[in-house]
Amino acid sequence: MQKFTRIYLMMLALLVSQAVWAQHAVSGKVIGADDKQPIPGVNIVEKGTTSGTVTDLNGDFTISVPDDAVLVISSVGYVSQEISVGGRTTINISFVPDVKILEDVVVVGYGSQEKKDITGATVALKSEDFNQGIIASPEQLIQGRAAGVQITSSSGEPGAASNIRIRGTSSVNTGNGPLYVVDGVPLSNDDISPASNGQPIGDSPAKNPLNFLNPNDIASIDVLKDASATAIYGSRGANGVVMITTKSGRGNAKLDYSYNLGVSTITKKYDLLGKQEYLDTYGKFNPPDPKKPNDVPPAIKQDKGSNTDWQSQVLRTAITQGHNLSYGSGDKAGGDYRFSFGTLSQQGIIKKSDLVRYTARFNGTKKFIKDKLKVSTQLTVASTKDGNVPISSNSGYEGDLFSSAFKFNPSAPVRNPDGTYFQPGTDQPNPVAMLNLTKGYTNTLRSLGNFSAEYEFFKGFSFKTVLGFDRSTSSRKAAFSKDLVYNGIGGIGRLYINDVQTDNRLWENYFVYDTKIGERGTLKALLGYSYQSFGYSSQGFAFSNFRTNDLNIMINNYASAEKAVGTNSSDVKDELQSFYGRVNYSYHDRYIVTATLRADGSTKFGKNNRYGYFPSAAFKWRISEEEFMPKAFDEFSLRLGIGTTGNQNIPHNLFETRQRYSDNSINTDGNYQTGGLSNVAFANPNLKWESTTQTNIGIDYGFLDNRIRGSIDLYNKKTNNLLIQVTSAQPAVNAFVWKNLNADVINQGVEFTLEADAVANNNFKWTIAGNVAYNKNLVKNYNGIVDTGAINGQGLSGAFAERIANNQPLFAFYLRDFAGYDANGNSLYTGGDFQKFTGKSPLPKTTLGLTNNLKYKNFDLNIFFSGQFGQYIYNNTQNGYFTLGSIATGKNVTKDVVSGKEGILNAPDVSTRFLQNGSFLRLQNVTLGYNINFNSKYLSNIRLTLTGQSLFVITKYNGQDPEVSTNKQINGVPSAGIDYNAYPRARTITFGVSASF
Amino acid sequence: MKTNNKKFLLSMVLSLSMIASCTKLEPNEQDSIVIKESGSGTTSGDAVALLESSYKDLDAFCDQANLYAMYEHTSDELIPPTRGTDWGDNGVWRTLYSHTWDATHQQVRDNWNNLNSRSYKTNQVLAAGNVKPEQAAEAKFLRAFYMFYVMDLYGQVPFRAITDGVDVNPKVFSRSEAFDFIVKDLTEALPKLTSIGPKATNTTASKAAAYALLARLYLNKAVYTAASAEGPFTFAPADMTKVVEYCDLVTAEGFSLEGKDNYFNNFTLNAKNEIILTVRHDSGTPQNRIYMVLHYDQKPSGWNGFATLADFYNKFEDSDDRKHGKSPAAKGEDYYGIQRGFLEGQQYNDKGDPIINSRNNKPLAFTKDVTLSGASTEKGIRVMKYHPKDYDAGAQYVLLRYADVYLMKAEAIMRGGTGTPPALKMVNDLRDSRKASALTKLDEAAMLDERGRELYWEGLRRMDLIRFGKFNTTWSEKTNTEAFRNLFPIPQIAIDSNPNLKQNPGY
Fold this sequence. Notes:
CATH architecture of the largest domain in chain B: Alpha Horseshoe
Oligomer: heterodimer
Low-confidence stretches of chain B: 38-42
Shape of chain B: globular
Strand content of chain A: over 45%
Strand content of chain B: 5-15%
Largest interface: A-B, 82 and 78 residues
Number of domains of chain B: 2
CATH class of the largest domain in chain B: Mainly Alpha
Helix content of chain A: under 10%
Strand order of the largest sheet of chain B: 5-6-11
Shape of chain A: globular
């Protein structure tokens, strides 16, 4: 808006004064082009003069102008028009909303601000910036699109959780993810679906709690990165804040329908030995006994007569379908509403794994009492069913589904001649048997909603109250038939039921005061109170010794089990009570100052430190508005911000000494084991927040009519008072206590964002958008040692690969230094048979995203690359399965194992032999779209799209996919960058059609 | 303006009502028991539940890792070979055998935590509001038992009183201070402990158990009160006499040696004469001792881990009951193929047929020779004291038995204690009931060997080797002779969290 006004003023200065014509009154009405409603407050100015008027409440205006005058019609949010009077006395104007202007608004905490007024480091992403294709959860929409925001899905499983890091990893033991705020309701960071722990095949994690949001319903995602933007969320803002805004009704009543059909296949299979190679290699290490020439040679015995590609047996081409239907309309004056319904049925590339989701949403707003009272509500209900397969993060040497598929004898048949599965022993599970003799699924029902009322007492002063709720119930069942030959399952059968319910409530109240100070200053103030409670309860059961092998009877007829035990249950509630305030002062639209303060009180912390205070301050100087700046700079601003935010993402009540009865179970012999009364926490009344102090310097720039625009940010984040489980000085009843460490985790980095409209014609547009971020992570002032990154495999109990220590990045790799093999084929290690720091870490140093957006007439093409560089990956799959000792004992391996100098008795200890460079560049998303515009009354347009996801990746990593992080935690300390039996990644081609009626 | 005033008033009322609705943020625990620590030292814990839990904690002795490994894998009677991809385990076993451990060794750390947290739980029993004198006596015995092993392994014992909060660093007893404290605990407990005679399942602390532990303490007193843990150790005759007294008190409680052919009864439910203390079956069992040695192709299918050294095996005469014992199962019954004692040579299945090693398709015969790394699956002679058939029947893991007490008395007399009969006769009487030939003379080497033959693989060997000054000599593939290794290092994380602990010399 500023720009337009200034241009006209400049033109005014150059104009020669016009001859004065005869004046007469012109009147008319301004009506919105989209909703046909009158628009008050529109400026009508006679061009070339300062005389003008404003439309009244009915959109009417009257102005006295010469006959040949030109009227300039302008208002915020609409495309300005110039209309020649041409002697008319009545002029009605159809005013078109300026969508581009609306896009310059960023949603921040408790409100929104225009981008030009934002003093913090933020990224605003609208639906056209989102990734396309089969997207199950919201964070996948913005993967790679925001500088400094690193999103990695932990595996390729449908519904898998994502790891999101904004400006590096700051915490050791607590959650590292950002705070999600959906339509103003902050979500709890807890999982809402159960994990499966302690089962024979191993542990698998809970699903992504954001799966309940249909990405199709999301209008925009704003990421708040630095402290001055996130400090308004105080104790939860240390890892950044992701603000999700759902779509509201706009414009005329519209019905939208879209349909997606996707086909997915595996990106890369393991290059295993074929049947003949396998038998030959096995025979080489198991030669016949020369003393017994009549015995069958071992290689012949190992040949079971068939030829099976086990990877293909468990993989499939997956089909995914999604439907979305929405109906809504809205105008600025009265209100808006929008209903939407969506279904997604996403198959995974491993058979029997899938995600089926139904969502229903309603958004509505209405104004009452002369538009002073605005009532609005947003409501989402989602029902999700995840089909689970037996893949785990810590299976032992027997393996889980995917690893059995690598190991199994390629000459073995799937079934015996009599139809039963070929199952030679508990240490060699048949993958197809594992798939078909087990059944697991998770059912989740979640509803998230809020109801708010905002009342404007007088112009600029309003009060808003919000009531929000977030409730879910989820049940996970895992049944293992007794026909499956596996330790702890064969002959008895097992069933595990885990249920989780969450109940989160929010009540928020705040005042907003918006006023002008003097001629050029504007002041915006916010003062509020918030109360939020988080309830979490769980129940678990285990059954065994079944009288049936029918999986459905096992699940739906519990009495078929002879042994049943309640493993455990829990019920906890946490509360958060806060007071917050923000002041925003802007002078002459070029000097902007923001200050915020939040006081949070939480039940998670001890009496002595229950409240924490989180201030921030920021300053922005819009240098481009200054007179001395050359006009070449459309935008050039300098931002400085500093603030303190907190992290309180730890489990419930760790500051009092508490005891609970630990889990009951049924052991492998079928005997009951009761848990004893033991401590779950040891008293520490001084337990308090982890705090992060962040400073940020940023520059926003724009040239050539904003055809080139972007920003540069430098930041320094120092996290102190790390919340961590430390070993209690023994003796103590509990080996661990939660404490605040006086250590620092420092993340320093720089982010570059650049967008360029390379070509912008009427027919052809080409926009390039790129972001690059560099981050350096270091632990300082820490005298202790924490080991993490458990490594599983034969002969690897107790092995670990990562260590957190002073002057190292978090999760630095701690390994023996592999130096080849000796004469006997046993591994040699430089410096000795012990582990040490390698100088390599799983945290990427550079992340990058590059988009090319091309539009030609009705076609558009979007090509998006994303990459991460500088990280290393420890290939636990290779460590556990692909060594020469494995093939000598009859387990299949990859081809590169056979050609090395390793001996068959070599112990594959944790070493740099399995550490690889994990840098990658991936063609993440390619979308080709075609718009067909109709002008009929019933159908306004149809859009066809063809999208390819994960088409190819360039990397040196020899595992299945470099974007991987299996949960290999030790004692609650998470790990990073370890690949173990991760669910493989898929390449997906999606065809989509959407229509607006 | 007036309307604005009214509106301001309304907004003030709103904000006041907001503040009035503030909560106190006190947690209200619905699913756990909160223990409020009061200053008087008593806690709201329940003595009965905590004492039962402390007994269950004795399962720490049944695991093959941690405590057992620190006593056996560091000795000359057990070797933990890395067999290809099996038992590599990040080198934890190899470093114990080669005496190359450091302060970050996982089992050194876990064992420290296990023992010290268990001894703290006994403090909680003693501080519980409803504790009875008999329960206090048993808790004191258990505290002494756990602290004994900490003192023996690490040489320093941290002690935390119930009233010490998180920020208090526990005080640390030196080795001799710990010795005095443990002796005091046992002496105070004795009057209220029960007198129980031998049974196969003696799971409660008794007078006999306390006497046995006191005998062990005094026998090793020279080691615990020496100026340096590296030695030399001088055994005071007065201490030796005390050992003899305590051993006689055990005998007076009704204990004696099992007779001929009955050596292995000690590890079954048929034990009649020797068993002083066992681990409750619902917490810890001898299961690990079975699985840790058996080959994958035997029944039950084991983990194919540890073996004994040929030099140790050669110390036995063939007639010795303790070397080999018959399987208790009948032909065709489960576990018929598993013998007792040392498993050497060809192994058989339940039907009596030779087993074929599926890893190399040759007959499965355990060999005498074995290497520490790169060993194939059949290398090494195995040890089977708890037979699978007896384990199935409910045999319990033995912590203290009379043969140990008997040999302690003989050793004490040998070292100058006053008592009868003479040491040589005592040892020969034992050998007689084990069907071994009589010795002609008894010196330290012979005493050490006899203790080895009687008590092999029962978790005591390191103690004996140190007392006889042989822990730092060399044996097959163990070449490290550093004398400071008589003590294990204090785990690095314990040092980091308690400034009162100072690292042991040499580490």
